[in-house]
Specification:
By secondary structure, this protein is of the alpha/beta class. It folds into 3 domains: 108 residues, 3-Layer(aba) Sandwich (Rossmann fold); 232 residues, tm_1862 like domain (pyruvate-formate lyase- activating enzyme, Alpha-Beta Horseshoe); 61 residues, Nucleic acid-binding proteins (OB fold (Dihydrolipoamide Acetyltransferase, E2P)). Helix content is 31%, strand content 20%. Strand 10 and strand 11 form a beta hairpin. Helix 11 runs parallel beside helix 12. The two termini are 33 Å apart. The N terminus is likely disordered. It is found in: Cytoplasm.
Length: 456
């Protein structure tokens, strides 16, 4: 079992640009680390560069410079970002660093003093300026045109749709507000317009992301403009009218989330809710500065399931938070037993520079964190296995992600997000299937995290 599954990281993504570079066209490479929100930032940077006449290089050797979009949330992520920067330096030598770790430029230059530039998260103009200095543009106005759908770092049949930036919460383990600022929502009409372009370009699944999706629009007073209101319920309804699958991520469990569930029951958005519960012990949640009404959350989960029995609930948790006792950890296990969540990830607590949790007393020893993580994942795995076993014999809709040379199709059901959840593998009736096709499959077998079946 790997150390902290799932990673929540579609990282090391490469740009999907079909046209070859013209003679003399400057090329830029990109490595995108971290969460899907960072991936969207990478796509925006590459789209701007492509419009300015740059070609996107699929490897280090063919690039005039390489942009590394970093993750800086955990110390382990920082170390991996430094490793990626080092690999780019060794393979190319001309590296521009951006992203969350860019908020700590001395940390980066201390390890890699020869990087060309360091910029912080979502500082698009600063990244472009650094590229211009390193690799001057050489546009051809008759050839270089902005692609209608921009540059994508995901398969063409699904796309992340960022609806806001920043966060207003003050969770003690998190430094995202310090790195990315307070909540800043995009106008609803701009989100819908982007979604329309994506669907027109062939996207079959829209994955709605932000730091706090359910707070969308709060900072702009849920403004209505051009027929679209900036409230998550209205936005979800509008997105659901476009004909693509709509999947909601990072939904903080506010009471008004219940208003989204009828949209799932009616088929407008996928019956899937990604909610960061973090723990099940009220005392630990209070120390985290999270909502501490764990019992009320269980009531809310029951209400969601009453409205939409097919809903899939996924969440992530932290074990070993400072001061966590064995009794509090047992409260988490008991809470998970009662909640019966479908998809679960767990992280062992890490100190993060700048997070107030680092100053809390009674830090849990690493060996205790590892032992609790293993016990947590054992229980979560058993719940997942039982839930998937109950699907054997059912017919489910699934979207095709890939078909290999042997005709095995890797698919996802409505309850599976790309990169972080399981898959449905099909080995019969797959002739003619292509990525993005939505099929009906009968489930024949199940494992702890995956399903197996055939097209019907």
């Amino acid at each position: 079992m790997p150390a902290n599954p799932p990673d929540l990281r579609p990282d090391l993504a490469r740009a999907r640009v079909s046209e070859a570079a013209r003679p003399g066209q400057p090329k830029i490479g990109m490595v995108s680390l971290g969460c899907p929100k960072a991936l969207v930032d990478s796509e925006r940077i590459l789209t701007r560069l492509r419009a300015e006449g740059y070609a996107i290089s699929p490897d280090y050797s063919g690039a005039g410079a390489v942009i590394v979009n970093t993750c800086g949330f955990l110390d382990s992520a920082k170390a991996e970002s430094l490793e990626a920067i080092g690999e780019a330096m060794q393979s190319n030598g001309r590296v521009i660093v951006t992203g969350c770790l860019g908020a700590e430029p001395e940390y980066i230059t201390g390890a890699h003093p020869k990087v060309l530039a360091v910029t912080g998260p979502h500082q698009y103009e600063a990244v472009l300026d650094a590229v211009h200095r390193a690799v001057p543009p050489s546009p051809d106005p008759f050839v270089d045109l902005l692609p209608a759908s921009g540059v994508s770092l995901t398969p063409r049949h699904y796309s992340y749709l960022k609806i806001s930036e920043g966060c207003n919460h003050k969770c003690k383990f998190c430094i995202i507000p310090a790195m990315r600022g307070r909540l800043a929502s995009r106008p609803a009409h701009a989100v819908i317009r982007e979604a329309e372009k994506l669907v027109d370009a062939g996207v079959q699944e829209l994955l709605v992301i932000s730091q706090d999706t359910s707070a969308y629009g709060l900072d702009i007073r849920y403004a209505e403009e051009r027929g679209h209101r900036a409230h998550i319920t209205d936005l979800a309804r509008d997105l659901g009218s476009l004909g693509a699958w709509v999947r909601l991520h990072y939904v903080y469990p506010y009471p008004h989330v219940r208003e989204l569930i009828p949209l799932m029951a009616d088929g407008l958005v996928l019956p899937y809710l990604d909610v960061p519960f973090q723990h099940g012990s009220p005392s630990v949640l209070r120390r985290m500065a999270r909502p501490a009404a764990a019992a009320r959350t269980l009531d809310e989960i029951a209400a969601w399931r009453d409205i939409c029995p097919d809903i899939t609930l996924r969440s992530t948790f932290i074990v070993g938070f400072p001061g966590e006792t064995e009794a509090e950890f047992q409260e988490l296990l008991d809470w998970l037993d009662e909640a019966q969540l479908d998809r679960v990830g767990c992280f062992q607590y890490e100190n993060v520079a700048g997070a107030t949790s680092a100053d809390l007393p009674d830090h849990v020893p690493d060996e205790v964190k590892a032992e609790r993580w293993a016990r947590f994942m054992e229980k979560a795995q058993a719940i997942s296995a039982a839930k998937l076993q109950a699907k054997v014999g059912q017919r489910l809709e699934a979207i095709v992600d890939e078909v290999d040379a042997d005709g095995i199709a890797t698919c996802r059901t409505k309850g599976d997000a790309p990169e972080i959840d399981g898959n449905l593998f099909l080995d019969e009736g797959t002739e003619g299937l292509v990525p993005g096709r939505i099929v009906t499959a009968e489930v024949d077998e199940a494992s702890e995290y995956d399903l197996y079946g055939r097209v019907v």
